[in-house]
Amino acid sequence: MTVVNKYADLLKTRGVARIISAQLTARLPSGMLSLAYLLHIEAIFDSYGLAGLVLAATSLGQAIAGPLTSRWMGYWAMRPVIILTIAVSILSMAGIAFASLPIGGYIIVGFIGGLATPPIQPAVRTIYPTMVNSKQLTPLFSLDASAQEIIWIAGPVITTFVATQISTVWAILVAAAFLVGGGLWFLSCRELGTVTIPPSRSKLGVVLKKPAVLLATVVGFLLIGSAAAVEVAVVSVFGEEGAQAGLVLAIWAFGSIIGGLGLGGLPIGPWALATRMAVVFIGISLAGFILDFWWISFALLIAGAGIAPALAVMFAIVSSSVKFSETAEAYGWMGSGQLVGAALGSAIAGFAIDGFGSPGGFAAAAAFALVGVLVATIFKKAHPDLRGKDPSPIPDTEPVRTITEQP
User: Fold this and answer.
1) How far is residue 31's CA from residue 15's CA, in Å, rounded to a whole number?
2) What letter does residue 381 receive in the DSSP assignment?
3) For residues 287 and 305, what is the distance between their CA atoms, to the nearest angstrom?
4) Which CATH class is domain 15-382?
5) What are the extents of the domains in the chain?
6) Predicted TM-score (pTM) of this structure
7) d(CA 59, CA 107)
8) Which of the chain's ends, N or C, has fewer CB atoms near its CB within 10 Å?
9) What is the DSSP letter of 391?
10) Residues of the chain whose pLDDT is less than 70?
11) What pLDDT score was predicted for residue 374?
12) SS3 for 272?
């Protein structure tokens, strides 16, 4: 079966195309707000550093919220938790966009918004194994990771264009519109009512003792931190020429999508994560040498080819390592790592650009990616070998073998 036919059959599976599209739309603000807040606060205080403090506060709230709200879905179901967090998130975005506050006020509002990050990612990753058979799960993770590039890379294209061509306030409002529209679409999906997450029997955080979960959380933090730093560096290179910056980021996204779809059917061995992170590091390292549109585009096309494949590997090794009741919390920790990485990557790149210019932003991004390669390599034993194995979560109740005595 060709790669195209494989994904075509997957999208024909009942509900798959709908839920991927809905969750993608609802989660698009995750890839927009860090950059929108950075540009908005920088325009107010004329400092990337102060803007970075707001992002750091937001990331702290996200780190606290991710695993916590994911566990809530096991107790109160998905829809009530997602509705509550979306409502608070919208109020927080409005506060950042319209309120005239000292920097401390923006930090507090950003922190509250981070706490209210909707747990859509852990919800949908928990639902996926119930929608397809075991052979389709790894390709589904690859398809999802490729589609996720709309969040982490193509999302900032929209933010950059709106912020530079209209205003930073409108960039935040566009993100809010995606959250409301996508959130309502996601909430309408029947799977949210038919799939029940069993309450986790373990204490909060115990799932991080699973080596694969901890590995995916740390490397995901570093990968998305690197991506966020690149976004800020690209914007700093092209300044107010939003069209050029947007085109570079779009080319980067295209590389990631092609990489994710092309490698989606490959077996996941113990070196899978390290090799994919190495591709990301090489491409980003090249990007900072020549600050030219075509050179940066070429380098980021290489880097992009490793991003979606790396994310797909992380999703698969987490899924295969936890019980079904633990999946939401596990993906909550992983999602928190990515969101924190996005905010801190933007913030650190901002300080680096203030001190060393645009090359400093690319250097910060390359440093994030290099540490990701080292972590994936040093802790390779935490990476399960999934070649020929089912990546579905471990059932909470497994069959018990009985021995019947013969007379």
Assistant:
1) 24
2) G
3) 14
4) mainly alpha
5) 15-382
6) 0.75
7) 11
8) C
9) -
10) 1-5, 134, 152-153, 198, 200, 239-242, 264-265, 388-407
11) 96
12) helix
CA 136 to chain centre: 21
What is the C-alpha separation between 40 and 171, in angstroms, rounded? 9
Instruction: Tell me the pLDDT tens digit for each residue of 282-319.
Output: 999 999 888 889 999 999 999 988 998 898 888 888 88
Per-residue model confidence (pLDDT) at position 402 = 35
Closest CA to 364 of 343, 378, 350: 350
- Of 193, 119, 159, nearest to 34 by C-alpha is 159
Provide the angle, in degrees to the nearest 10, between the axes of the packed helices 48-76 and 78-98: 160
Residue 194 has which token pair? 């038919």
Instruction: Name the token pair of 169.
Output: 């306030």
**174 phi, psi to nearest 5 deg:** -65, -40
- Residue 230 makes CB contacts below 8 A (sequence gap 6+) with 252, 284, 287, 300, 303, 349, 361, 362, 365
User: How long is the chain?
Assistant: 407
As given in the structure block, the two tokens for residue 228 are: 């966020």
Which amino acid, 319?
Answer: S
Residues 347-374 have pLDDT tens digits of 888 889 888 888 999 999 999 999 999 9
Q: What's the number of CA atoms in the CB half-sphere (13 Å) around residue 113? A: 31
